[in-house]
């Protein structure tokens, strides 16, 4: 049985990848590396999945529902020095919300140069964001196109979905936001520094063309 995935067509793929891997492997002594991305949209709907429940008392999910309370979005940063997640949940995910989040990170580490690994979502590249970063010792390190797997925060989002959302039927955004916050506080109390990204993996020394679709068996 074969599976396939879309390879990056970015002409600067190797240069961008090596820059990110170098930050992962050799974080600057006078700076801090953070992986940033948005998670969502956070709908209010029954979500299938496993959950801890008393024996013979399974979770009951609605068969029908309406989405009449809108959606929300989480923006988060994974601090590789401590492995802690820092996040905000907002109604929108425009450049203004992104810039507001960056300002919270700047206040958290006022004396360090921040290296932020982000994808190519248009709010991340907004002129207002770029101008603020340029004057506040913040470097935006953009992923190659079609390479979200290079952003270390992606695996953390999978855990947020598994532990905070799967098997739930939250009726309000406040209830859902609380569940997400409870999980993140729990994981942050047990966090350890991040190291060893894709150690020994083929992606560190690619010998395949970064075009079209690639297939493995």
TrEMBL record:
Outline the extent of the Tc1-like transposase DDE domain: 32-167
State the SUPFAM superfamilies in the record. Answer: Ribonuclease H-like
What protein am I looking at?
IS630 family transposase
């Amino acid at each position: 049985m074969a599976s396939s995935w879309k390879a990056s067509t970015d002409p600067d793929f190797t240069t961008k990848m090596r820059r990110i891997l170098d930050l992962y492997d050799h974080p600057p002594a006078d700076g801090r590396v953070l992986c940033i991305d948005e998670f969502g949209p956070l709908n209010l709907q029954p979500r299938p999945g496993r959950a801890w429940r008393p024996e013979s008392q399974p979770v009951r999910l609605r068969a029908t529902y309406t989405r009449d309370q809108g959606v929300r979005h989480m923006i988060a940063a994974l601090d590789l020095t401590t492995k802690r997640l820092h996040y905000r949940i907002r109604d929108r995910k425009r450049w203004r919300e992104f810039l507001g989040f960056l300002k919270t990170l700047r206040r958290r580490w006022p004396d360090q140069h921040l290296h932020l690994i982000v994808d190519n979502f248009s709010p991340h590249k907004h002129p207002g964001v770029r101008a603020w970063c340029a004057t506040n010792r913040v470097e935006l390190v953009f992923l190659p196109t079609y390479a979200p797997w290079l952003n270390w925060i992606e695996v953390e989002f999978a855990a947020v979905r598994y532990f905070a959302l799967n098997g739930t039927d939250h009726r309000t955004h406040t209830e859902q936001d609380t569940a997400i916050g409870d999980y993140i506080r729990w994981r942050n109390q047990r966090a350890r520094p991040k190291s060893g990204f894709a150690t020994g993996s083929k992606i560190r020394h690619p010998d395949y063309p970064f075009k079209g679709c690639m297939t493995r068996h």
